[in-house]
Specification:
Elements (H helix, E strand, L loop, with lengths): L1 H17 L2 H7 L4 H22 L8 H28 L1 H8 L2 H11 L4 E2 L1 H17 L9 H29 L6 H23 L8 H25 L5 H8 L1 H14 L5 H17 L3 E2 L1
Length: 291
């Protein structure tokens, strides 16, 4: 029981830390792609130190290395989409849209793995659609073009994050896979490399212009990329799936709260109701398939 309680505490702590991810992105005075470069490079460096201290092997041959680099490319697409989404529509809504990855994961399970859909998922889909309409649809014609683009990028984030989750799980289950921390370190550095290329193409500067930006990027890399990921990946398998789903809902919920508290976002009742429905749909969708 004590071990399970510790695992629950670690997952909750990880979800709390990750909820600040979009806040750090918003606060950092660098381009949206460049913030991802610093997040993954700083986080990768912290993970690498941990790997060396624990005397774990980071290189186990070319095939595991190539797999990790490929996963890093997928993650770079995910972070690039999400960071632009944050700048277009705000931290809270961008994070909620990104968590719609559960629907892509369930769709993959149903179509590719022939898993049976549950009543929970069948209820979650219309609930999610209604939530989105209440958040965005009622004023769609009044939204600016960049805001509409942000919504599309948020859904793209959900799809790419689902791909990242699936490939990471698959790679980590293979017999020649590195330990989780070592694998995440390689993925982090690969992601930083690809996002650096994206940043150069876009003409974003690598320069950190002020101290608040430096601390935002350090917090993003150390707290969100390294510490939070480590806590969640280590503890999540030790708690019940239903409790894990509720715990991880802290991330989008708190991200929305931080946007209201820290950035003065004004929210209408219909939007709040839509957010509540969307979060409920995410929770229901996270348990939406049976083998």
């Amino acid at each position: 029981m004590m071990r399970r309680n510790i695992a629950i505490f670690q997952v909750l702590t990880g979800a709390l830390l990750i909820s600040f991810s979009p806040v750090f992105v918003k606060l950092a005075e660098v381009g949206p792609t460049m913030s991802g470069v610093y997040r993954t490079f700083i986080g990768g460096a912290a993970l690498l130190i941990y790997v060396f201290v624990r005397h774990q092997k980071i290189y186990l041959g070319p095939r595991p290395l190539i797999r990790s680099i490929a996963i890093g490319f997928i993650f770079s697409l995910d972070l690039t989409s999400w960071h632009h989404c944050i700048h277009f529509i705000g931290p809270g809504l961008a994070t909620i849209l990104g968590n719609f990855q559960v629907f892509f994961l369930v769709a993959y399970g149903a179509i590719i793995l022939k898993e049976k859909l549950t009543i929970r998922f069948l209820a979650a889909v219309p609930l999610a659609m209604l939530g989105l309409v209440m958040i965005f649809g009622w004023q769609w014609n009044e939204l600016a073009l960049f805001y509409k683009l942000g919504i599309l990028l948020g859904l793209g984030t959900a799809a790419s994050y689902a791909c990242f989750t699936l490939t990471l799980r698959h790679s980590q289950a293979l017999p020649d896979a590195p330990r989780p921390a070592a694998n995440l370190a390689i993925i982090s550095f690969a992601t930083a490399l690809f996002m650096s290329i994206f940043s150069l193409i876009k003409g974003e500067s690598f320069l950190i212009t002020d101290t608040p930006t430096l601390f935002s990027l350090l917090g993003y890399g150390l707290l969100c990329q390294a510490l939070a990921w480590g806590l969640i990946s280590r503890s999540l398998p030790q708690i019940p799936a239903s409790l894990a789903g509720l715990a991880l809902l802290l991330q989008p919920t708190l991200a929305f709260v931080w946007e209201i508290v820290l950035f003065g976002k004004t929210v209408r009742f219909i939007e709040l109701a839509g957010v509540a429905l969307a979060l409920a749909a995410i929770y229901l969708g996270s348990g939406g398939r049976e083998k």
